[in-house]
């Protein structure tokens, strides 16, 4: 349903995130009628340019993003209308350039106002202060910040403090775009909309959980950021831990934002600490070398960077949630750049049957529930089935598939579409609360500290493989294997 017109200001309006994700997402919401004419979308950046130039840049970015999405290349009248919502504002976060004019334009309308800080986190505090100084923050104002929120607990605290001096917690939307992905939301629907899963969703019936987020891309143009972050901070601290929380959390009493976030927080706080004492057994870090990815030869990370580096482009680790529900159940997490496939999935492996009556007939593979986030969103339940035919009893592990595309049809909305509209509506359910971010850093910091103490360098892996062999050993040591679709 259409939202009342609002103002959305994107700091970093001509940056990569804005052009590749935010503006295409807004365009789709406009085309579907959810964003109405009269809404204002303002791109803010440091260079001086006209509205017309900016619209042209956005038009080109939309064309590029829609080309990849073949089901969906009708720009047409909607495109013209959308571009009319856009304007550009030259603003200097350090100086006064542009602010007077910008503040006046903003004050012309009293309505929901969203400031999206798609800029480096060291600018968050300054941006917030300037907005307050120009009196642009009222009860209907919201601010959106992207990860990384800092580089460790201390820097995250400083950022959160600075934001907290200008905005109330309910006005701060810390985005983790994985929470906007369809399959991730569907995980909550599956767990709590069906009676089937919940009784089994515990240590007595679940053997282990795997969460894989594999990417084929390298660091692309992001080396200056990425080399300071690394996979642990870029992916595990936020996306993978959030997925783990949604798998492991206790049933919230309602869909209330705090009810859900309270439960996620408990999971983060229950994670068994990993530190210098056990990091070597529980965490594997890797860095890609020359190899092949996306069907061509690619250079190693250090070559791409132009110098050697100890930054990890791959992490695999074994986590444990210390609670009645999960005691003893390993959660194996892995993520990396330049892996063989762009695959993100959550795999829940159930325990084997207690007694096999099929002895000598077939080996029974355990049931697996596979929630695939990417590339094609789907839910698959692996079951043992009889192979049809009169030739006696043979069993096979077969997938029972629920492909979203087939079942529901139509275009799959990008995570940012849902999340941006939630910000405008003021619904923080799919955003991270301050204490969650803090708890996640508190768990991550000692892992990094352990690497430093151990003077530990990432293990090499060939681009286009599933990480260093130690990542395979990490799970095989426990008599288990990483899931691969048959
Ligand atoms: C971002 C990371 O948060 O997520 C990137 O900074 C990563 O390094 C990206 O490529 C992955 O997102 P998605 O939606 O493509 O899986």
From TrEMBL:
Name the enzyme group at the top EC level. oxidoreductase
Q: What metabolic or biological pathway is this protein involved in?
A: Carbohydrate degradation; pentose phosphate pathway; D-ribulose 5-phosphate from D-glucose 6-phosphate (oxidative stage): step 1/3
Where is each Glucose-6-phosphate dehydrogenase C-terminal domain found? Answer: 189-483
| Residues of the active site | 239 (proton acceptor)
In alphabetical order, the GO MF annotations are:
glucose-6-phosphate dehydrogenase activity
Binding-site residues for substrate, renumbered to this chain: 177, 181, 215, 234, 337
**Catalysed reactions, semicolon-separated:** D-glucose 6-phosphate + NADP(+) = 6-phospho-D-glucono-1,5-lactone + NADPH + H(+)
- What residue range is the signal peptide? none
Q: In what residue span(s) does the Glucose-6-phosphate dehydrogenase NAD-binding domain sit?
A: 9-186
Q: Which parts of the sequence bind NADP(+)?
A: 46, 92-93, 147
Question: What's the EC number here?
Answer: 1.1.1.49
| One family name in Pfam for this protein | G6PD_N
Q: Which InterPro entries match?
A: G6P_DH, G6P_DH_AS, G6P_DH_C, G6P_DH_NAD-bd, NAD(P)-bd_dom_sf
Keyword list (alphabetical) reads: Carbohydrate metabolism, Glucose metabolism, NADP, Oxidoreductase
Function statement: Catalyzes the oxidation of glucose 6-phosphate to 6-phosphogluconolactone.
The entry assigns this protein to a family as follows: Belongs to the glucose-6-phosphate dehydrogenase family.
The family database entries (PANTHER family) matched by this protein are listed as: GLUCOSE-6-PHOSPHATE 1-DEHYDROGENASE, GLUCOSE-6-PHOSPHATE 1-DEHYDROGENASE G6PD
Q: What is this protein called?
A: Glucose-6-phosphate 1-dehydrogenase
């Amino acid at each position: 349903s259409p939202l009342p017109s609002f103002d959305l200001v994107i700091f970093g309006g001509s940056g990569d995130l804005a052009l590749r994700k935010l503006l295409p997402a807004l365009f789709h919401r406009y085309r579907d009628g959810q964003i109405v004419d009269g809404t204002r979308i303002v791109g803010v950046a440091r260079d001086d340019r006209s509205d017309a130039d900016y619209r042209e840049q956005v038009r080109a970015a939309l064309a590029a993003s829609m080309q990849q999405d073949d089901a969906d290349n009708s720009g047409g009248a909607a495109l013209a209308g959308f571009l009319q919502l856009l304007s550009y504002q030259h603003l200097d976060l350090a100086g006064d350039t542009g602010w007077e004019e910008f503040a006046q334009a903003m004050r012309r309308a009293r309505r929901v106002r969203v400031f999206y800080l798609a800029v480096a986190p060291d600018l968050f505090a300054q941006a917030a202060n300037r907005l307050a100084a120009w009196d642009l923050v009222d009860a209907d104002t919201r601010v959106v910040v992207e990860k990384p929120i800092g580089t460790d607990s201390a820097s995250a605290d400083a950022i959160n403090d600075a934001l907290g001096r200008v905005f109330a917690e309910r006005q701060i939307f810390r985005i983790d775009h994985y929470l906007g992905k369809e399959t991730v939301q569907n995980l909550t629907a599956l767990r709590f909309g069906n009676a089937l899963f919940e009784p089994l969703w515990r240590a007595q019936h679940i053997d282990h959980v795997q969460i894989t987020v594999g990417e084929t891309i390298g660091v692309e143009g992001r080396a200056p950021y990425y080399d300071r972050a690394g996979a642990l901070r870029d992916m595990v601290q936020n996306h993978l831990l959030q997925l783990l929380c949604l798998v492991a959390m206790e049933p919230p009493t309602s869909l209330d934002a705090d009810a859900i976030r309270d439960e996620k927080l408990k999971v983060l706080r229950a994670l068994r600490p990993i530190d210098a004492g056990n990091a070597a057994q529980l965490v594997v870090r890797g860095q890609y070398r020359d190899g092949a990815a996306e069907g061509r030869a690619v250079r190693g990370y250090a070559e791409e960077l132009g110098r050697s580096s100890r930054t990890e482009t791959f992490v695999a680790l074994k986590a444990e949630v210390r609670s009645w529900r999960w005691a003893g159940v390993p959660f194996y997490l892995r993520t990396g750049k330049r892996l063989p496939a762009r695959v993100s999935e959550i795999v829940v492996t159930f325990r084997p049957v207690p007694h096999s009556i099929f002895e000598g007939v077939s080996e029974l593979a355990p049931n697996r529930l596979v929630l695939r986030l990417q590339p094609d969103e789907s839910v698959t339940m692996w079951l043992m089935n009889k192979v049809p035919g009169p030739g006696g009893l043979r069993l096979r592990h077969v997938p029972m598939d629920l492909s979203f595309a087939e079942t529901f049809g139509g275009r799959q909305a990008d995570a940012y579409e849902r999340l941006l509209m939630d910000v405008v509506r003021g619904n923080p359910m799919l955003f991270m609360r301050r204490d969650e971010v803090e708890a996640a850093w508190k768990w991550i910091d000692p892992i990094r500290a352990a690497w430093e103490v151990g003077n530990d360098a990432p293990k090499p892996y060939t681009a286009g493989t599933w990480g260093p062999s130690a990542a395979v050993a990490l799970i095989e040591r426990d008599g288990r294997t990483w899931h691969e679709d048959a």
